[in-house]
Amino acid sequence: MRFTSTLLMAGLLLAETVSAAPTFVNGLAIPGATADQFGSSVNDGRVGFFSDIYYDTHRNEWWGLSDRGPGGGSLNYETRVQRFTLDINPVSGAISNFQIAQTLKFNKNGAALNGLAPNPTHAVGNAFDPEGIVVNPNNGNLLVSDEYGPSLYEIDRNSGAVVKTYATPANLMPRNAASGVANYAADTGNNAGKRTNRGFEGLAVSPDGKYAFAMLQSAMLDEGAGNGSVNRIVKFDTATGEAVAQYAYQMKRSGQGQGVSALVALNDHEFLVLERNNRGVGVGADLATADKEVYKIDLAGATDVSGIDLDAAGAVYTKVVKSAQFLDLDANTLAELGNKSPEKWEGLAIGPKLADGSYLLLAGTDNDYSVTQNAGGTQFDVYFRFSDADPYAGSIQCPLGQTEACVWTANGSGATLSADYKLLPGVLHAYKVSAADLGNYAAPVPVPAAVWLFGSGVLGMLRVSAKRSLLRKGCAAGPAGCR
């Protein structure tokens, strides 16, 4: 990331800002056909935006996670994460110039962690649907959570290899409660544990790296399923890989596909939670009544519900404290999407500190690769004209990678693809949030065993790089000259 402030120009930082609501700065609509380092083929190269986002403060790096691929679990896809760069104005927080810097594919024991659904269904195997990512500050490894298990892996940031598998609590396993037989590929036969495609959607790490927090997308099968509105946060010890507690989170509603999409640590007990419904501009989505919100929560005083059935009659427990709305992601839109809200806001990260002491807050969407498929597994690119009142209702489907033999999504009749139709982009929104509004925010801090990062000259190189970046952009006078 080409950033021109934070620790790189600490001497120029101004006083902390007063408390205020997060302020929208600007956004990017990244073309849906953007390629990663493996090419542009939709099943091995087209970028999948953004199942999660993470900013590594110590290496000045952004990570954007792709999910199980455009085949919806039915086609081969080697799961991966993208390291990307952004230009960030150190004064305003405005973002620009998104670029892929590295594509890292995941593997376990030399075999790809694959987006294919588990087969046989009672074993996860190498099936992987990545949804949450953080960096362990103690060793630099990636922690990545998934929906199939739900699973949590520690992954080497250089090779993409799994180096540790965390122990998922037994009560979360998708299974038949009577027989104990699991089905990780679908809800068929299951009546307990997480719902299909509703696993560890949110992931956060404590500032000292001692604990990881993984959050289910919504209520488990035996706790209301689609009608349930209370789901779980699991606290893991990163040293042992074992779960040490679970906490109950009250969602805004049930129905409308309501669920949690991201979890961001403010410190070791306070977090930001991104909660959304499945309305908005998306592949196959209902446009009406988009609702995407961020809340601040506090685990302090919440009951460990590891052994409690959350919807049992007479169950007594204290849920996590949930604030009033912290941020409305629907309040600001981009002209590139016809000023309509995207469906799948799934990524959220606290970025660098800006020149006035505030922080960049970055939110991102999952665009589902702008692909759909029929019952036979044949894939189609989905093109939208965002000026339409309902872009999906008027969308066009074309055979994968082609612009001929296209049809209207609504009725399957022939359609001609014109220049005003576009693949669904990935969207990034930049917000400026005051340090006071983040409260007791603490960025991840490596333990002494990890100070090799700073002893290796990396910090010095970052300073040199930032200085060169300032000169290239005509900002030799510092942040004030970069307005």
Task: Describe this structure as you would to a colleague.
- There is one protein chain.
- The protein has helices spanning 435-438, 452-455, 458-472, and strands at 2-3, 23-30, 52-56, 61-65, 80-88, 95-105, 107-108, 111-112, 130-135, 142-146, 152-155, 162-165, 200-205, 211-216, 230-237, 243-250, 259-265, 270-276, 292-298, 321-328, 345-353, 359-365, 371-373, 379-384, 396-399, 406-408, 414-415, 422-423, 426-433.
- With 483 residues, it is mostly beta strands.
- The longest helix has 15 residues, at 458-472.
- It has three helices and 29 strands.
- The strands form seven sheets. Strands 23, 24, 25, 26, 27 and 28 form a six-stranded antiparallel β-sheet that branches. Strands 1, 3, 4, 5 and 6 form a five-stranded mixed β-sheet that branches. The protein has a four-stranded antiparallel β-sheet with strand order 2-29-22-21.
- Strand 15 and strand 16 (243-250) form a beta hairpin.
